[in-house]
């Protein structure tokens, strides 16, 4: 019981935004995993790129904030990984990873 009470009253416990922020950010990760079933032409390159930048910025914030928020860092690492994968699917579909035949001048 004392462990539960200590967790409840900790500076990163469920009474704080240090807990509920990461929990709500897991929604981005869950949505990204659900989008893995979508064909790549249905993905938005702009939105996926924005989510990559957003998660990268907030990974740094989660590391620098005091007390350090490992839950927030973890939720953004998960989101960054799934969004980077989605961005690579989108880019492959649109031909960004194809090598073009370059003819050299004679």
Automatic annotation (TrEMBL):
Domain of life per record: Eukaryota
Assigned GO CC terms: mitochondrial inner membrane
Membrane topology: Multi-pass membrane protein
A Pfam short name: MPC
Subcellular location: Mitochondrion inner membrane
Protein's GO biological process: pyruvate import into mitochondria
Chief place where the protein resides: mitochondrion
Keyword Transport: yes
InterPro entries: MPC
Keyword annotations: Membrane, Mitochondrion, Mitochondrion inner membrane, Pyruvate, Transmembrane, Transmembrane helix, Transport
Functional note: Mediates the uptake of pyruvate into mitochondria.
Family: Belongs to the mitochondrial pyruvate carrier (MPC) (TC 2.A.105) family.
Name of the protein in its database record: Mitochondrial pyruvate carrier
Organism encoding this protein: Artemisia annua (Sweet wormwood)
